[in-house]
Specification:
six-stranded mixed sheet, two-stranded parallel sheet, alpha/beta, 5 helices
């Protein structure tokens, strides 16, 4: 079986976990290749879409027998971007990862696998992203193992859509307490979109670490 993995986000946290996924897939005696642009896609058996900023066109989707997108929410709830960040900001003690078929309409394809991941109310983005990556790998390897026995199911329920977040959404309000903004501090990324505040028309960047990290 030929497995391709699409990651076209250069700053995706998942780049740090590629070697682990390769190791797990090769144990199943499958071939795996990482693709960094949709334009580079070629024919294969399964395409896993892990981190992309683009909606794949039908021509790209036709190259593989099965296209599967990894989305970190309980679809059809939480379609869109930044699902994990929104879970943290909404003070959730968990988030979901859904492995679903990639189709023309974003995040609407049939569901193959779904997993609930618990998070603690003091865990920061780095720890939560690690859980997301490890559980994504578990779902990918499980799907590869059970590809011929899993029956996909249509999404049920009314879809909800998450608004896009940008680096500007990491701004802290200096007139509010740290406690009241702690979930925002948990959701920021120290390198890609760090917390910041504006004081006297100047921008100050803050990075947050747990003491034992």
């Amino acid at each position: 079986m030929k497995i391709d993995v699409l990651i076209d986000q250069k700053d995706s946290f998942f780049h740090d976990y590629k070697s682990l996924l390769i190791k797990k897939i090769k144990k199943k005696n499958y071939k795996i290749k990482f693709i960094y642009s949709a334009n580079k896609l070629k024919k294969g058996d399964i395409l896993f879409i892990i981190a992309t900023n683009k909606i794949l066109k039908e021509k790209s989707l036709s190259l593989h027998n099965l296209n599967l997108n990894i989305h970190p929410s309980k679809l059809p709830q939480g379609r869109g971007s930044a699902a994990v960040s929104w879970s943290i900001l909404n003070n959730k003690s968990f988030f979901y990862i859904t492995l679903h078929e990639a189709v023309k309409k974003v995040d609407s394809g049939k569901v193959y696998l779904k997993k609930k991941i618990a998070i603690k109310d003091y865990e920061l983005s780095e720890n939560i992203r690690k859980k997301q990556a490890i559980n994504t790998i578990k779902l990918v390897t499980e799907l590869a193992k059970k590809i011929y026995s899993i029956k996909p199911k249509k999404q049920k329920g009314k879809p909800t859509y998450l608004p896009k977040r940008t680096p500007d959404d990491s701004q802290l309000n200096i007139n509010k307490s740290i406690k009241s903004q702690f979930n925002l501090l948990r959701a920021v990324d120290n390198e890609r979109y760090p917390a910041f505040f504006i004081y006297k028309n100047k921008k100050f960047i803050l990075k947050i670490y747990k003491e034992d990290q």
